[in-house]
Known about the structure:
Elements: E1 11-16, E2 30-35, E3 38-44, H1 48-54, E4 64-66, H2 72-75, H3 78-87, E5 94-98, H4 102-113, E6 126-130, E7 137-139, E8 142-148, E9 158-164, E10 167-171, H5 180-184, E11 190-194, H6 208-213, E12 223-226, H7 230-234, E13 242-243, E14 249-251
Parallel strand pairs: 3-4, 4-5, 5-6, 10-11, 11-12, 12-13
Antiparallel strand pairs: 1-2, 1-14, 2-3, 7-8, 8-9, 9-10
Amino acid sequence: MATSDSPSGVAVTFLGSGDAFGSGGRLQTCMLLSSHAGRLLIDCGASSLVAIKRAGLDPNAIDAILLSHLHGDHFGGIPFLILEGQFSRRERPLLIAGPPGLEARIRAAQEVFFPGSSGTPQRFDIRFLELSPETPVATGAAMVTSYPVEHASGAPSYALRVALDGRTVAYSGDTAWTDTLLRAADRADLFIAEAYYYDKRVPFHLDHATLLAHRAAFTCRRLILTHMSADMLVHQAEAAWECAHDGLKVVL
């Protein structure tokens, strides 16, 4: 749904650019895509409601949440967002899309954080949508395509490609290198890539050195690094691409 303060083009705001451990004092992964067509989040880490309010945004203006995978630093903010909507008398429907099993995982998290909340009738409609790999699906104003990646999370993990208002934003999620990322980011206006370490390779995560080794294969127009550990934060000045920080806003 359009909003009166929606930007011209598509704005991408890094509400949270940190890793699971808050390295550098950063909030956990949460990115806002805004346009005249609507507003959606890509991932919603546990600190996301704080990030949204710190940015002066209305949580109830968010139309959809797209999840790359089901780790707490990527979806753990949803129980808080739902409870906020309940107490603030949200009326706008909320779509939550992501890997298979997302509804069960979110409802379980609600019960852990706020017992009894998962069964409380909501004042607003919540729709859960499971994404199938490489199958474009409409999520409100956006068209979303998920791509399987390599990250153990108890459910499939995805890179996401989001087409909104004539722009395309791709996101690696958390993953070891896989050529699937090249398809997800193909000719995207922006590719947001994890760079957990600078040159150290660990299972299920990307590092700057690996991304650099594949630099010539990327066809995206712009690439921004995020989800950086303390090790990568030390090396930001040496990075081959822009590095995200909490509050960074780019307009495509």
